[in-house]
């Protein structure tokens, strides 16, 4: 699956969620469940790639500010939430995590002292849920995914996370993420 098709599926789910008022992750499962099994597996592979590309200290710092802290598991959910924002916000975040200070959900969450903005755990499992809907078997996805990956590129190459720094150092956070720090510190 090429990157344009991946983002088309994300945008289709975003549009569907907006029209129906359903949560994004449910709309994404609906969109994916209309795809052939192989395309769901290709989507999952591409999802992992774009998800892994956000595995950086500066993005984790943004998640830490927005979430009032951020564990390993929460950081997975945050990266899924950034993907759910669509291609434009994903690319802006990858270029400059501080740009999230301009996203309406982040601004609203900061003013309401709500720490769940952009943390969308179920987006991580949309491909599995869609595959299960097609097959009726919860475990079928993992077997098919392992077979799919064994015929192609191996998943799991190491990512350069960039420079590590102390998320609890307010001065450092203000220096690195000034707009987000202004909202949250």
Automatic annotation (TrEMBL):
Pfam families documented for this protein: DUF4240
Domain DUF4240: 1-133
Region (Disordered): 145-164
Record-given protein name: DUF4240 domain-containing protein
Organism whose genome encodes this protein: Streptomyces hintoniae
